[in-house]
Design brief:
This protein has 196 residues and is an alpha/beta fold. The chain has six helices and nine strands; from the N terminus they run H-E-E-E-H-E-E-H-E-H-E-H-E-H-E. Helices cover 32% and strands 19% of the residues. Helix 5 links the parallel strand 7 and strand 8.
Length: 196
């Protein structure tokens, strides 16, 4: 992970086991025990690390994250906190997702988009497939760039199908997200007036 992100570990035990990636503190309660938590700002151009960022990192670790990814410029964190320090947190998350896609994951990729019903269809498809074959999906409304990158980076070694969700909030964004996923199967649930 440090090699892909060009980061440096700090205070991390050699037997640390990471179960997935997360970047939104509210999702920390949704089965993310053992995750690597990425301390991010919504704006990819915003590199600031505030006292609120430090508080979110602390909360994520208390919720079960094993370590946090923070910018090199991060201040106000305990000196014994397990961290991965990187130049840019969101670009590091994207790099990890791309690395898994290009070098580690060999299964099939499905992407779901549409005006309505994306999350419901994704979760239902996961519910049907998971008892039959090892299937990966973020079982929440994870349909923006960073969510897709985190979902890719969280794929397990034995997963054979990975299901992603892509929102088309602005022209060209669904295409950009699809190009990142490189799906074998593309599902459109519905095309509403706002997307015509």
């Amino acid at each position: 992970i440090a090699q892909v992100t060009k980061g440096k570990w700090r205070n991390v035990p050699c037997d640390m086991f990471i179960t997935g990636m997360s970047f939104k503190r509210p999702y920390m309660a949704e089965g993310t025990q053992g995750n690597l938590y990425f301390s991010t700002n919504t704006d990819i151009h915003d590199h600031s690390f505030t006292s609120g960022s430090a508080l979110n990192v602390t909360k994520a670790l208390k919720k079960g994250a094993v370590a946090a990814v923070v910018p090199n410029s991060a201040e106000g964190l305990p000196t014994d906190m397990p961290l991965l320090q990187v130049d840019h947190v969101l670009l590091s998350l994207k790099a990890l997702g791309a690395h898994v896609r290009d070098h580690l994951y060999t299964g099939k990729r499905v992407i779901v988009t549409g005006t309505e019903g994306k999350t419901g269809f994704k979760c239902a498809l996961h519910h049907v497939l998971a008892p039959q074959i090892s299937t990966h999906a973020a079982l929440n409304s994870s349909n923006l760039d960073h969510s897709i990158h985190a979902s890719f980076a969280s794929i397990r070694q034995n997963d054979r199908i990975a299901i992603f969700e892509a929102a088309g909030t602005h022209p060209g964004r669904c295409k950009r997200r699809s190009l990142f996923v490189k799906p074998h199967l593309f599902v459109i649930t519905e095309v509403g007036n706002e997307h015509i």
